[in-house]
Write a structure and sequence with these properties.
Length: 396
């Protein structure tokens, strides 16, 4: 029997797939030799060499001679256009840092767990070290980093660069974040609430691209709301607009870290969901809950559905007041997809006035759990491009 011959179309598709594999491998490692690329991707040395040459000419990759273990090799990195920006998301239990060029292309990223109640001094030191190490890893000079954007899960007064409600993020009170990190790195630093940055990323580049009025719901260890109104992030008088997690929904309910009782966060935040499952499932993380729900665990599905229903009720109030064009749901719990989104839609649509525009769409964040980090990159780049703050800034 004659061997099947690849059609021109399939050859083109294969080459595009190989290009994507090479770019992805370089992005994940920051810098890598062509020999190492062959081992990582499983492609032949000749294929690696040809594709790397093409992508170098196209301005996607950059190559330079190097010596590793005494052997000469060709080191491959992503090409950088005009400089880099750094994006940082200091969440309740994790830290994400990314470097991107001015076209928003991420050239390196890392994620680390953080202890509960992490404090400003140690966390900002860790951020500075990670940025310095990542810049070195991609073969860049510190002077190539133009600005740093930082997102925190707390209200931020952008006029001062400080957390404006100390009870929500303990250990951060009185810290002028842009000044502390800016002095350490010698780079302009801007800071904002993480849900605001999630809204910014999704409105600019993601699921709400091109929309002027966007509500972004972040559901993870905490609960937040980012608003883009008239194409601009809306923060309120002290940066506390959108603190949806601290809306009281159950009088005399469980105590909340903000000092109130019965806040939404006490009913759908990670601590509550994990406590509900602990008697039957033992120790879990939020991502464990999502993973088990996705493969059919009934109890995990039930707590996610209940969280979605409660979230949809509160989101209905947001939509009644602001009439956004779209509601985008992000954060770690949103990785459950329709298991969360469907009950959000059902509860929301049952409580919102139906207009000629139809029901408010409810969509998953395009960047998944990375929306806040991507928003921090956008904020940093915006600040560099216009030379004026879009959030609190500091530095050299």
């Amino acid at each position: 029997m004659a061997k099947d011959r690849a059609t021109p179309g399939s050859q083109t598709s294969l080459r595009e797939a190989n290009r994507a594999r090479i770019v992805s491998a370089v992005q994940q490692r920051g810098s890598i030799t062509q020999i190492e690329l062959a081992g990582v991707t499983g492609l032949s040395a000749a294929t690696i060499s040809n594709i790397v040459k093409e992508l170098t000419v196209a301005g996607v990759l950059h190559t330079a001679p190097t010596s590793r273990s005494g052997r000469r090799a060709q080191e491959v990195t992503l090409a950088r256009n005009l400089g880099l920006v750094a994006g940082v998301h200091l969440a309740e239990r994790s830290l994400r840092v990314a470097l991107a060029d001015v076209t928003h292309r991420v050239v390196a990223e890392q994620r680390l767990p953080l202890p509960p109640g992490h404090r400003a001094d140690s966390s900002l030191d860790r951020v500075a070290l990670m940025i310095e190490e990542m810049v070195e890893t991609v073969g860049a000079a510190p002077s190539e980093v133009l600005a740093v954007g930082v997102g925190l899960p707390a209200p931020i007064d952008v006029s001062t660069g400080q957390v404006s409600a100390g009870g929500i993020l303990r250990g951060w009170g009185g810290v002028v974040i842009p000044d502390v990190l800016g002095r350490r790195l010698g780079i302009p630093v801007v800071v904002d609430n993480d849900a605001n940055l999630g809204a910014l990323a999704e409105a600019r580049l993601g699921a709400a691209r091109g929309r002027q009025h966007v509500a972004y719901l972040r559901v993870s260890h905490g609960v937040g709301l980012g608003l883009v109104l008239g194409g601009q992030v809306f923060r309120g008088r002290s940066g506390a607009a959108g603190e949806l997690g601290h809306l009281v929904v159950e009088e005399d309910g469980e105590p909340c870290r903000c000092g109130s009782r019965g806040c939404l966060e006490t009913l759908i935040g990670a601590a509550h969901l994990l406590a509900r499952l602990a008697p039957t499932h033992g120790h879990l993380t939020l991502r464990d809950v999502v993973g088990q729900a996705m493969v059919g665990d009934t109890a995990c599905r039930a707590v996610i559905a209940e969280a979605g229903e409660r979230l949809g009720r509160v989101a209905a109030t947001v939509c009644t007041l602001l009439d956004p064009e779209v509601v985008v749901v992000g954060g770690d719990l949103a990785l459950a997809g329709e298991l969360l989104l469907d009950p959000v839609r059902t509860a929301l649509h049952a409580r919102v006035l139906v207009t000629d525009a139809g029901p408010v769409p409810v969509e998953a964040a395009a960047f998944g759990g990375q929306s806040e980090m991507r928003g921090a990159l956008v904020l940093a780049l915006d600040t560099y491009e216009v030379g004026a703050p879009h959030g609190a800034r500091g530095g050299a």
